[in-house]
Design goal:
alpha+beta, single chain, Aminopeptidase, five-stranded mixed β-sheet, acyltransferase
């Protein structure tokens, strides 16, 4: 039996394990630089910036979806899905669908103008999953970022 619920602070060590599992899957384990303390502070500190739903099977967290509010000058407030992670042993069992549907419900309940996320162009299972929702997968946008170190240079 699967239980979906809002993440709590005590879930963070397990959520970070799943983040690391996702980074391995995405062939970028060295890119995870956030510490557990930073992760906890960002979700449960004085100024929380993310929320998450967790999927539990028999009391164990096997997946989660972390999101935050993104504002678009063109579209208004939107739910931004940062990560949807299901541990490998539980993929293909409908848990991603449960979490994704819960996010859609959340976006509607909060009155957002939509929901946005990114997907790697080589991640065919994820692309196929999102296509079932008739998602618009855009081409032509390049991701840009500055690291903490780069910020300190300016």
């Amino acid at each position: 039996m699967t239980n979906l619920r809002i993440a709590v602070k005590e879930d963070c060590p397990r959520l970070m394990e799943l983040v690391h599992e996702l980074a391995l899957f995405e062939k970028s384990p060295e890119e995870v630089t956030v510490t557990l303390d930073e992760f906890i502070e960002a979700g449960f500190g004085a100024k929380p910036v993310w929320k998450a739903f967790v999927a539990e099977v028999e009391g164990a967290i096997v997946g989660f979806a972390v999101y935050y509010i993104r504002y678009s000058t063109w579209k208004g407030s939107r739910l931004y899905l940062e990560d949807l992670i299901i541990t490998e042993a539980y993929r293909g069992k409908g848990l991603g669908k449960l979490l994704f549907n819960r996010l859609i419900q959340e976006a509607k309940e909060l009155g957002f103008s939509g929901m946005v996320w990114q997907v790697l162009d080589w991640n065919e299972p994820a692309i196929n999953f999102y296509n079932k929702y008739e998602a618009n997968i855009e081409a032509g946008w390049l991701n840009a970022s500055l690291s903490k170190e780069q910020l300190l240079n300016y």
